[in-house]
């Protein structure tokens, strides 16, 4: 027999149908009693998408977007019509032999002889299982066949890829079923899912049919309930059933036993493949999900192409060739698509472990650019959340806006723009090409998907970002070679809200950098934790015990769900020994922290209730958003006279639309936190903004631009209630129109109220848009609410400046 095809998913079906069409001797082996187990296991009634829409389909089988049942019936009929040789209930246990003479041993004891083998087995049979306490309880399932079977249950779906989203939508489709459906997403983005599915999920969330929990992971499963790790700590919710759709892994042992090598040792790695899908075992080809291509149309094209290659059509180009060729036309030289793909893959560090197939898929969602020496890639304060990878040449980063001659180079193979990708901030520097340069620009969605699905790419980006954070934090003339050993030994650690990173009195010797989130530093006095300071992202801690060998003098815990970079103390001390100027800087920082500790110790007998009051006040502020804030409005109730000048000034600065409600919010002692934006380090509101209308300004302000479509996602995602939806009324007529024709309100009148009434009187629809504080960006003098306060009661500060132990002096 010429070819044995293992697995009857879309890729295997297409390969077998093409072999039958060519008259090539073949057999399609399927371990179940039906074809296309991949689609068969989709939930009943599922709408199957045919993406990407601009990709032609090469296959004797038809495929258009439609219901699961229709697609299965169509394929069953067409496979019968084309007289494809199929063996059901034929599970392959092992593959032996060499190209031209393979033997496939079936679990039934039968053997199949074939000159070549096409593996299209997918990964669905190896789901990732939950690894939390209670994961063995019977109400956890890894498959959803028919969502209509479940009624009046609290159901939690774990996993925010396409399968998880579609399961959640199916369970919540009919309100008469009475299900309370929650879906957990460990991040803020839905990087693995198709945009159409994300849109449907957002609509279901807006309608109240599904509760979407972002930045949330399972902590423990119990009968009838589930414990969650959220940004702000643990929470318990009712849970009668769990649908875990957390991905799957290739059947690695089976594949490696056939002599096939993988790209790496990572659990999620894929087999090494040539452009013709041939593995490191000559004669065995891999297609479909096992090759890293999960989309149905891609899989079907691969099945067709694999048979064409086996039939001698070695000049066949992939179906996406014209699309990629058009992208590369803008680049210099006359390289082919394959040559350019290999250039990017081999030269860019984060892409080096991707297969040719993965490179093609990534490139479809990315752009390429060529720059001449001095050409600007992007400018400081530009908006943008894409990431760039340098395939040829290098760029110069203008880190000092006042001295454009001072630049930092980024060489070929590295990346830049990752800060905008991770934080959503505006570009922090101007970047120019230092020489003829070719770069790949990964869209935000493409970059996040790459990091979520490729462990090697994620590791490489982590390494680069850790290195740059070290150089930025410690400075003192360091270069990448100086910190290479420290970076190699570093570890990125996720920390739950409230989890302790350092314990007072402990004898460990690591140093930590706050990568995301924030930390609280506390000291035990008489059995009570006393708040010392707040550490925002970008701070480092733990250096005192590392440098002088002492025990920990305070405890450090996460204010919210955070990430820290752990650096071994020995490696850090080695760096200090090699760089005396760095040791001097560290000693200076350490002296400041020692002074704080000594100050607290010296007054612990006299503080009494004042210390306790301070700690409670600090904890109140953290609980109300300072744990993730970069700028927050606080009002001292002892000084506030209730004049409302702050609200009026806010309205006057924003076309009559105030962003502040002074009376709303919470108060502890004399400190009030009104409903005004905290400008979070990693804003909740930025998650799932369809037009990307929410951006970060050069001074850290989070603002909403004119592209807002009024979907309300930001309002729903903000945990502090500081965003509202309000009508966008017609423009106010100018002063001349008022003077000559009496049109519009006069000077000093409430223009917003007039405009809204005018629109209502004319029967015009006034679409709503999102309204929030933008820190009076572009207004001279800074926030109007602070400038308008006659008593100094209103202040806007970063939390690390407000939550300082120096405040203890005020309560002494």
UniProtKB/TrEMBL annotation:
GO terms, molecular function: 4 iron, 4 sulfur cluster binding; metal ion binding
SUPFAM superfamilies per UniProt: 4Fe-4S ferredoxins, cAMP-binding domain-like, FAD/NAD(P)-binding domain
Cyclic nucleotide-binding domain span: 350-451, 474-593
Entries under InterPro entries matching the protein: 4Fe4S_Fe-S-bd, 4Fe4S_Fe_S_CS, cNMP-bd_CS, cNMP-bd_dom, cNMP-bd_dom_sf, FAD/NAD-bd_sf, RmlC-like_jellyroll, RnfB_subfamily
Name of the protein: Cyclic nucleotide-binding domain-containing protein
Pfam families: cNMP_binding (PF00027), Fer4_11 (PF13247), Pyr_redox_3 (PF13738)
Annotated 4Fe-4S ferredoxin-type domain residues: 631-663, 668-699, 700-728, 767-800
This protein's UniProt keywords: 4Fe-4S, Electron transport, Iron, Iron-sulfur, Metal-binding, Transport
Database matches in Gene3D superfamilies: 3.30.70.20, FAD/NAD(P)-binding domain (3.50.50.60), Jelly Rolls (2.60.120.10)
């Amino acid at each position: 027999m010429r070819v044995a095809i293992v697995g009857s998913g879309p890729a295997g079906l297409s390969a077998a149908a093409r072999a039958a069409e060519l008259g090539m001797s073949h057999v399609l082996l399927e371990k179940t009693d039906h074809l296309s187990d991949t689609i068969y296991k989709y939930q009943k009634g599922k709408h199957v998408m045919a993406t990407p829409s601009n990709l032609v389909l090469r296959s004797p089988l038809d495929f258009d977007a439609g219901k699961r049942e229709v697609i299965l019936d169509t394929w069953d009929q067409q496979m019968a019509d084309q007289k494809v040789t199929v063996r059901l209930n034929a599970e392959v246990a092992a593959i032996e032999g060499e190209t031209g003479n393979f033997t496939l041993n079936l679990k039934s004891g039968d053997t199949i002889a074939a000159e070549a083998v096409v593996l299209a087995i997918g990964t669905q049979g190896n789901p990732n299982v939950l690894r939390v306490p209670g994961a063995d309880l019977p109400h956890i399932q890894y498959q959803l066949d028919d969502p209509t079977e479940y009624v009046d249950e609290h159901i939690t779906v774990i996993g925010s890829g396409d399968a998880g989203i579609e399961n959640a939508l199916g369970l919540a489709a009919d309100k008469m079923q009475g299900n309370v459906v929650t879906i957990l997403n460990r991040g803020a983005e839905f990087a693995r899912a198709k945009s159409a599915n994300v849109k449907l999920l957002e609509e279901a969330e807006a309608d109240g049919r599904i509760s979407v929990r972002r930045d949330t992971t399972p902590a423990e499963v119990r009968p009838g309930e589930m414990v969650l790790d959220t940004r702000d700590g643990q929470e318990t919710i009712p849970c009668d059933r769990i649908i875990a759709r957390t991905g799957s892994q290739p059947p690695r042992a089976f594949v490696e036993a056939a002599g096939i090598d993988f790209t790496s040792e990572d659990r999620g790695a894929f087999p090494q493949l040539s452009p013709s899908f041939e593995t490191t075992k000559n004669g065995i080809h891999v297609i479909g999900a096992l090759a890293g291509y999960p989309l149905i149309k891609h899989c079907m094209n691969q099945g067709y192409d694999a048979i064409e290659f086996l039939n001698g059509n070695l000049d066949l180009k992939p179906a996406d060739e014209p699309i990629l060729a058009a992208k590369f036309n803008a680049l210099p030289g006359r390289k082919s698509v394959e040559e350019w793909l290999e250039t990017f893959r081999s030269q860019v560090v984060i892409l080096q472990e991707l297969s040719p197939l993965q490179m093609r898929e990534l490139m479809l969602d990315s752009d390429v650019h060529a720059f001449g020496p001095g050409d600007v890639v992007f400018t400081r304060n530009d908006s943008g959340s894409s990431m760039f990878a340098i395939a040829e040449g290098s760029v110069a980063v203008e880190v000092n806006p006042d001295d454009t001659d001072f630049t930092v180079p980024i060489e070929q193979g590295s990346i830049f723009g990752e800060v905008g990708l991770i934080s959503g901030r505006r570009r922090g520097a101007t970047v120019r090409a230092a020489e003829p340069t070719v770069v790949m620009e990964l869209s935000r969605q493409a970059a996040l998907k790459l990091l979520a699905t490729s462990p090697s790419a994620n590791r490489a980006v982590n390494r680069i970002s850790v290195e740059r954070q070290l150089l930025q934090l410690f400075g003192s003339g360091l270069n990448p070679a100086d910190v290479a050993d420290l970076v190699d030994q570093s570890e990125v650690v996720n920390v739950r809200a409230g989890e302790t990173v350092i314990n007072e009195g402990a004898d460990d010797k690591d140093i930590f950098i706050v990568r995301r989130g924030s930390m609280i530093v506390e000291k035990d006095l008489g059995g009570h934790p006393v708040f010392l300071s707040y550490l925002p992202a970008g701070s480092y801690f733990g250096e005192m015990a590392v440098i002088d060998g002492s025990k920990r003098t305070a405890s450090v815990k996460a204010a919210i769900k955070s990430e820290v970079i752990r650096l071994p103390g020995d490696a850090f001390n080695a760096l200090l020994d090699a760089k005396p100027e760095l040791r001097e800087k560290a000693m200076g920082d350490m002296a400041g922290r020692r002074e704080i500790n000594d100050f607290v110790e010296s007054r612990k007998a006299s503080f009494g209730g004042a210390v306790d009051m301070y700690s409670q006040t600090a904890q109140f502020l953290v609980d109300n958003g300072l744990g993730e804030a970069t700028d927050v409005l606080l009002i001292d109730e002892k000084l506030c006279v209730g004049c409302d000048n702050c609200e009026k000034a806010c309205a006057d600065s924003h076309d009559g639309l105030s962003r502040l409600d002074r009376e709303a919010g919470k108060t502890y002692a004399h400190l009030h936190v009104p409903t005004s934006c905290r400008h979070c380090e990693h804003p909740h509101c930025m998650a799932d903004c369809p037009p990307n209308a929410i951006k970060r300004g050069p001074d850290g302000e989070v603002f909403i631009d004119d592209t807002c479509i009024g979907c309300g996602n930001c309002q729903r995602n903000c945990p502090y209630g500081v965003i509202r939806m309000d009508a966008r009324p017609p423009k106010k007529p100018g002063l001349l129109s008022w003077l000559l024709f009496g049109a519009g309100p006069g000077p000093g009148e409430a223009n917003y109220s007039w405009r809204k009434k005018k629109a209502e009187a004319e029967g015009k629809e006034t679409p709503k848009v999102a309204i929030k504080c933008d820190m009076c960006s572009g207004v001279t003098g800074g926030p109007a609410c602070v400038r308008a306060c006659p008593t100094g009661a209103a202040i806007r500060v970063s939390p690390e400046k407000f939550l300082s132990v120096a405040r203890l002096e005020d309560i002494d």
